[in-house]
Design brief:
Layout lengths: L13 H26 L8 H12 L4 H15 L5 H12 L1
C-alpha cells in the first residue's frame, strides 16, 4: 500500500498571493523581452562604413553580437548610405 500524501492545500495570506501575482507579471514581461531579443536578427554588415562602426564599437568594449545588432538597427533607422559619424552616433545610442 502506498504511503498517504499530504494533500492539504497551501494556505497563503494576502501578501503572499499578491507577491505571486506580481512575480507572474514580471516573468511574463521578462519572457516577452527575451523572445523579442531572440527573434531579432541583425542585418548583415557588408559595407565599409558599417564595418568601421562595428570595429569602433568593439574597441569601446561592446561585444560583437551587441555591436552588430546596434549597427543593424542604426542602419535601418537612418536609411540608405549613412555616413560614419551619423551611423556611429545612432549605433552608440542603441547599444547603451
Amino acid at each position: 500500500m502506498a504511503p498517504a500524501r499530504n494533500t492539504r492545500p497551501l494556505s497563503l495570506d494576502e501578501k503572499e498571493r499578491d507577491m505571486i501575482r506580481e512575480l507572474r507579471g514580471r516573468l511574463a514581461t521578462l519572457a516577452a523581452e527575451v523572445l523579442s531579443v531572440l527573434s531579432l536578427t541583425p542585418e548583415p554588415i557588408d559595407g565599409i562604413v558599417e564595418q568601421d562602426v562595428l570595429v569602433a564599437l568593439m574597441n569601446l568594449g561592446c561585444n560583437r553580437p551587441h555591436a552588430e545588432l546596434a549597427v543593424g538597427r542604426a542602419k535601418a533607422a537612418l536609411g540608405a548610405s549613412p555616413d560614419f559619424e551619423a551611423l556611429f552616433r545612432k549605433a552608440l545610442e542603441l547599444v547603451n
